[in-house]
Amino acid sequence: MSTLATPEPPVSPARGTRLVPTRIGTWSRSQIAYIQCPIWCTEDHADSPSALEDISHYGEPDGMAVPSFLGDNDAHYSWWARIECDPSSDDERMSAAHLIVGDESTFEARITVEMADQLADDLIAFATAVRDMARVARVANEADAG
C-alpha cells in the first residue's frame, strides 16, 4: 500500500468546517489528501480508501426506544436521527446538510432542516399528549388503589 504522508496544508477551512485527512484510492494504492469536513461529522475519512466523489459526511446518531413491560422491557419501537450530507450529489437536497431519520427497518426518511423543525414540533406535541395520558392513567390507578 502506497501512502503519501503530507503535512496539513496551510489553508484556512471554510466556516463550520475543518481540514481532515482522507484516504483516496484503493486498498492496494492510496494516498492521504486533506478535505474540508463539517465540524459535526464524526466519520474517520482516512480509515478506508474511497474515491473523492464517494465521500459523505455523517454526524453522531441520536435515538430513542420504547420499551414494553410485556417483554422484559425490550424495545418494541426505536427511532434514530443523524445529520448527513453528500457533497458530490447532483441532488441539492442531498448535497446540503440534512437529517436521516430511521428505525430498525431498512427504510430511512431524508428530511430537510425545515422538515426536521416540523417533525420536532410534532414530537413535542406527541410527548405532551403522552404525558397527559400518563397523568390520567396515574390518577385512575390511584383511585383504584384507594
How would you describe this protein?
This protein has 146 residues and is α+β, with helices and mostly antiparallel strands. The chain has a domain at 1-55. 25% of the residues lie in helices and 32% in strands. It is built from two helices and seven strands; from the N terminus they run E-E-E-E-E-H-E-E-H. It has helices at 92-95, 113-145; strands spanning 17-25, 30-38, 57-58, 62-67, 75-85, 98-102, 108-111. The strands form two sheets. Strands 3, 4, 5, 6 and 7 form a five-stranded antiparallel β-sheet that branches. The chain has a two-stranded antiparallel ribbon with strand order 1-2. The protein starts with 16 loop residues before the first strand and ends with a helix. The model has no long low-confidence stretch (mean pLDDT 90).
Distance between the termini: 75 Å
CA-based gyration radius: 22 Å
Summarize model confidence as the mean pLDDT: 90
Can you count the helices? 2
Low-confidence stretches: none
Question: Strand share of the residues?
Answer: 25-35%
SS elements, strand count: 7
Helical content stands at 25-40%
Order of helices and strands: EEEEEHEEH
The biggest beta sheet reads: 5 strands, antiparallel
Helix-strand makeup class: alpha+beta
Shape category: elongated
Helices and strands in order:
Layout lengths: L16 E9 L4 E9 L18 E2 L3 E6 L7 E11 L6 H4 L2 E5 L5 E4 L1 H33 L1
Antiparallel strand pairs: 1-2, 3-5, 4-5, 5-6, 6-7
Core attributes:
146 residues, 2 helices, alpha+beta, two-stranded antiparallel ribbon, elongated
A few lines on this structure:
It is built from two helices and seven strands, in the order E-E-E-E-E-H-E-E-H. It has helices at residues 92-95, 113-145, and strands at 17-25, 30-38, 57-58, 62-67, 75-85, 98-102, 108-111.
